[in-house]
Amino acid sequence: MILKPYTQIHINGIHADDIRTHFMAAESERYNLTDPFRNEDAKWSVMMQLPYLLPLLGESLSGKVVLDLGCGAKEGLDTRQKMKRILEARWTPTLRDQFNTQFEPWLCRALHYAGTTAIGVDVGASPDEIFRYHQVDLTLPNCLAFLPHASVDLVHMREVLNSPYLSKGLQKNPLEMMRNLMPQLELIVKPDGFFLFNEEEICSVENARSAILP
């Protein structure tokens, strides 16, 4: 498995924008993308992430298996709902609606539309998705055991290790979580596959891998 932080990727924004445009046009009714907040959240989520995945997946996306850790969900966690209630008193109805849409799994939906086998995991519930969604707590041992060995082309993780659920809800630090995940990722990712993560998570990822190497 090859580690790839976001900072090492030469992004493919043109191809990503084309995928986003066709995805949103085709799925606008299903996801109510006529709602301005859902529309903007979908565009932001896809375009902030998809351009970094495409160079690692190659020219053809068909048949590629992508696992998105912490992909987002329709129904939030208790910790997220508590945070929402604390802030709600100061919010307008407009801001409240926006909070409800930005955590949905937009990237996996776009990847599915583009022809990949998108597998999203998150601790919240997200019923009736068009891609393979699993409600999973990534802090638990063997949480990815449902995936066959050497079956994944690309694992993506962004803004997971600094999530409020991890630090405040479970009182766990990022390194603990990565030490749980890294041996599992080494098994399920193909030898020439990639683990793509954002720059804020580099230290935890590299330290976790060092801990399992002989």
Keywords:
single chain; 214 residues; alpha/beta; Rossmann fold; 6-stranded parallel β-sheet; 6 strands
Fold and architecture overview:
The protein has 214 residues and is of the alpha/beta class. The protein has one domain: Rossmann fold, CATH 3.40.50. The protein has helices spanning 13-26, 36-57, 78-88, 93-101, 106-113, 164-169, 174-188, 202-212, and strands at 2-5, 65-69, 117-122, 132-135, 152-157, 189-197. Strands 1-6-5-2-3-4 form a six-stranded parallel β-sheet, with helices on both faces. α2 crosses α5. The chain is globular. The relative contact order is 0.18. The mean pLDDT is 83.
Secondary structure: elements and pairs:
Layout: E1 2-5, H1 13-26, H2 36-57, E2 65-69, H3 78-88, H4 93-101, H5 106-113, E3 117-122, E4 132-135, E5 152-157, H6 164-169, H7 174-188, E6 189-197, H8 202-212
Parallel strand pairs: 1-6, 2-3, 2-5, 3-4, 5-6
How confident is the prediction overall: mean pLDDT?
A: 83
Main structural class: alpha/beta
| Sheet with the most strands, sense and barrel status | 6 strands, parallel
Specify Rg, calculated over alpha carbons: 17 Å
Supply the number of helical segments: 8
CATH architecture title: 3-Layer(aba) Sandwich
In short:
The relative contact order is 0.18. With 214 residues, the protein is α/β, with parallel strands linked by helices.
